[in-house]
Amino acid sequence: MADPINKTPVPDQWAAKFFTIWVGQAFSLVGSSLVQFALVWWLTRETGSATVLATATLIAMLPQIFLGPFAGTFIDRWNRKTVMIVADSLIALATLALIYLFSIGRQSIWAIYAILLIRSAGGSFHYPALQASTSLMVPKQHLARIAGLNQTLHGVINIIAPPLGALLISILPTQSVLFVDVITAAIAVSLLAIVSIPQPARIQAQANGEMKTTSFRQDLREGWDYMAAWPGLLAVAILAMLINFLLTPASSLIPLMVTKEYLGGAPQLGLLDSIFGIGVIVGGLILSAWGGFKKRILTSLVGIVGIGAGILVFGSLPPHLFYLALSGIFMLGFMQVFANGPLHAILQATVDPGMQGRVLSLINAGATAMSPLSLLVAGPVADALGVRTWYLIGGSACILAALCAMFIPAVMTIESNQLATVNPTLSRQND
């Protein structure tokens, strides 16, 4: 029997349809970045508490960790266009509620925590649904280029959002800045509404009564079984978790590196952020034009090696070579694109469209869960052995992990060995 899951065709005129959605999501990302800046600034100004800021970060992670694995199952059961529209709308409504509280002077730390929780929960559904839909809208040979374009977009936003947010905060009340997010969300939802998004053949078949509808529990277990039965996919997921474990502290400890090790201040930290963003943009433009090596997993692993090298350069140079150390930060941003972009393209091109919501959500939840765990480890290590120690450990471990992965057949053949997995949907059809 032919596999109905893989027979969902890419629509004609895919570029016009996809980039209509992409433009809307670009507006939404700008709005979300401005909200993030405004809320962090308000918490910083009103409390000056590192604990409050750390708690806000943790609260924003919780839905990704605990809701993510279940959200993917819903995404693979529901209409993905509807999921994205509802998620975007709920996030905008949460922001409207916060705008109201600011307008009547009833804003509070706990209200901001609640809004951050709701926004993150919406993102737990929206991001995997968008990624899973991309593979149904974009031809496989262009997925790596689209991933590079997405990385470029994030790099541009990382550069323009902080100064734009600072400008708006200086001339507008907080609630007016927050309202920008509502406007950009409305643009994203409107553009989503006018574009048809293909659904996996499995959802279409169940909707037409051609397949028996399965329970949520069956679909959830199917996602776990799918990953467990595919050694290459499982290995890549573990690698993603390891890299996130190593990189999160490296990112969080950068202000201490600048002030304590390179004896710099706010201008040096701002320059570092800009150099990183430029690296991401340049890398994204090159990846979107080139597409990477024919074997995309090789591009990703080379990117991880480059990330490790960048961390080592930044973490090992003496204070008087700070501006040379910035080359390590540029390399970190540049190579991050080549590590992440092709990996996303691999998952979109090889994982069955009907399983992508679950797989992407599980990997994202696992990677996000590494962030608080790694910070718990890195903090004491940095305090006891020095901040540079984590950069030397993290950079070396990244390089070693990527080089080891190059000698694991299941990883290097991930783009072709998915046929070894058992398709549970077909098994049920044949029963």
Summarize the structure.
With 431 residues, this protein is mainly alpha-helical. It is 81% helix and 0% strand. It is built from 17 helices and no strands.
3D structure, described in words:
The chain has 431 residues and is mainly α. The protein has 2 domains: 12-143 and 150-207, Up-down Bundle (Growth Hormone, Chain: A); 222-418, MFS general substrate transporter like domains (Growth Hormone, Chain: A). 81% of the residues lie in helices and 0% in strands. The protein is built from 17 helices and no strands. The protein has helices at 14-47, 50-77, 80-103, 109-137, 143-171, 174-193, 201-207, 216-228, 231-252, 254-261, 266-290, 296-316, 322-350, 356-385, 387-405, 409-412, 424-430. Helix 5 (143-171) runs antiparallel to helix 11.
Helical amount: over 70%
What would you call the shape?
globular
Total separate domains:
2
The fold-level CATH name of the largest domain is Growth Hormone, Chain: A
CATH superfamily of the largest domain: MFS general substrate transporter like domains
CATH secondary-structure class of the largest domain: Mainly Alpha
Radius of gyration: 22 Å
Calculate the mean pLDDT score and round it.
85
Uncertain segments? 1-7, 419-431
Could you give the count of β-strands?
A: 0
Strand content is: under 5%
